Amino acid sequence: MNYNTQMEAAKKGIITPQMKIVAQKEFREPEFIRKHVAEGKIAICANKNHSSLDPNGIGSMLRTKINVNLGVSRDCKDYDVEIKKVMEAVNMGAEAIMDLSSHGDTTGFRRKLTSTCPAMIGTVPVYDSVIHYQRDLATLTAKDFIEVIRLHAKDGVDFVTLHCGITRKTIEQIKTHKRKMNIVSRGGSLVFAWMCMTGNENPFYEYYDEILEICREYDVTISLGDACRPGCVADAGDVCQIDELVRLGELTKRAWAKDVQVMVEGPGHVPLDQVEANMKIQQTICMGAPFYVLGPIVTDIAPGYDHITAAIGGAVAAMAGAAFLCYVTPAEHLALPNINDVKQGIIASKIAAHAADIAKKIPHARDIDDKMADARRKLDWEGQWECAIDPEYAKSIRDERTPEFDDTCSMCGKFCAVRSMNKALNDEHIDIL
After folding, report:
1. How far apart are the C-alpha atoms of 366 and 355, rounded to whole Å?
2. Among 106, 207, 297, 431, which has the highest number of CB atoms less than 10 A from its own CB?
3. Cβ proximity of 290 and 59 under 8 Å
4. What residues contact residue 54 under an 8 Å CB cut-off, 6+ apart?
5. How far is CA 116 from CA 17, 51, 62, 106, 111, in A?
6. What is the average pLDDT across 241-261?
7. Does residue 362 sit in helix, strand or coil?
8. H helix intervals, 140-230
9. Largest Cα–Cα separation, the chain
């Protein structure tokens, strides 16, 4: 049987090669993957033209996946540096790269990614529209925006963030329900501005069916962007955010009816006590479609440390059902991240994702922790490096503060509890002084 998309194949009872790969990675039966793809609860973002892709599944019942945002801007436009960031991200285990470039040869960079990068590639076509046409936002037409989506699909992009959920109604909501931070989504603000300047309806909403046909042709997953995500904890859960989420639930149904896979994007800045509720609301309104969250960032006062505030929220979000964490770097709110920022952001997100996977009892998630515990009990330092999420950094700390005795560290020395217990249980003399 023929099929256009992973979802269409799944609905027809076909287990695709991509489903088999995902099943093997997740320690699941292929039929388990197929069933959940058919239901829309797992997305396998796999554009037919992305030949170098190593497929992964995104769903709350699978390992929590990590996305890394990259791309050049007018102030930071070195594509070689961005490629280095891509390789660093892939080597550290990021499952997805989003190219958010807003300057220069975006087409060439995007095509390089889809021809060489094994990670899923995502884009936000509204960013690229101004660059592609080299025209001001107000002069672009609905057709212009749709043609850029088609271009990205042809280039092999696996998922596109489209801010389909805001409409002209949102303009009045933003004006009436005063927010501290208004709209902080870059793509959402562009769509909002375009509607204000032209008087027209959101083209991604008005021409949604045409967009679905493009996505169906190339098997591009739609990531329904949250234009009204809260940009500060004070705005979390307000009318604008929830009204948009309801509309995203409606758009999810329409996409599934055309066999187009969907992810739904979520907040944003959210107080810690509201994170779980946000996940449950999304799961209900969007019928279990994979939830893709930025953070959530749980406090507004940590510029330079937002990878930590996001990891706190991300762990709680993933434990409560989020499937996909967009990393946040120390440069969030401040600058384009450099290579070290990227590394710190990935590590923080991976810790959050892994902690949540253990809590959710994802198959074999805890295996590496048990291996680490065995190595620590034996005071096997090489074994610990093999288990560490960042072995080079862990080893550098020990090397910089070398202990007097190899079976200790410079914190406890011979007072080491592990050393003392090993000796006591082996009926050995415990020498402290």
Report:
1. 9
2. 297
3. yes
4. 21, 118, 119
5. 20, 8, 26, 16, 9
6. 98
7. coil
8. 142-154, 168-176, 186-198, 203-206, 208-218
9. 83
Q: What is the pLDDT of residue 77?
A: 67
Measured distance CA(89)–CA(365) in Å, rounded: 21
Among residues 181, 201, 182, the alpha carbon closest in space to that of 191 is found at 201
Are the CB atoms for 63 and 26 separated by under 8 Å?
yes
DSSP classification of residue 123: E
Assess contact for 121 and 154: CB atoms under 8 A.
Answer: no
pLDDT tens digits for range 115-127: 999 999 999 999 9
Q: Would the pLDDT of 104 be above 90?
A: no
Confidence at residue 103, expressed as pLDDT on a 0 to 100 scale: 80
- In this predicted structure, what is the pLDDT of residue 336? 86
pLDDT of residue 136: 94
Kindly report, residue by residue over 312-356, the tens digit of the pLDDT. Answer: 999 999 999 999 999 999 999 999 899 999 999 999 999 999 999
**Confidence band (pLDDT; 50, 70, 90) for 72?**
confident
What is residue 290's DSSP assignment? P
* Cα-Cα-Cα-Cα dihedral sign, residues 279, 285, 291, 293: negative
Residue 137 has pLDDT above 80, yes or no: yes
CA distance 230 to 233: 7
CB 53 within 8 A of CB 120: yes
What is the amino acid identity at position 187?
G
Residue pair 88/342 in contact (Cβ under 8 Å)? The answer is yes
Q: What's the confidence (pLDDT) of residue 1?
A: 62
How would you label 396-405 residue by residue, b for 16+ Cβ within 10 Å and e otherwise?
A: eeeeeeeeee
Please report the domains of the chain, with CATH numbers, ordered by start residue: 40-359 (3.20.20.540), 367-425 (no CATH)
- Rounded-to-integer distance, Cα 110 and Cα 264, Å: 23
Give, in order, the Cα–Cα distances in Å from 314 to each of 173, 178, 221, 292, 350. 28, 27, 22, 10, 10
Q: What distances in angstroms separate CA 328 from CA 79, 90, 264, 293, 341, one per listed residue?
A: 21, 16, 18, 10, 9
Residue with tokens 């309801």: 246
Q: Name the packing angle between helices 168-176 and 186-198 (round to 10°).
A: 100
Tell me what pLDDT residue 166 has: 97
Q: What angle do CA 204, 146, 196 make, to 5 degrees?
A: 45
Handedness of CA 341, 304, 291, 137 (dihedral sign): negative
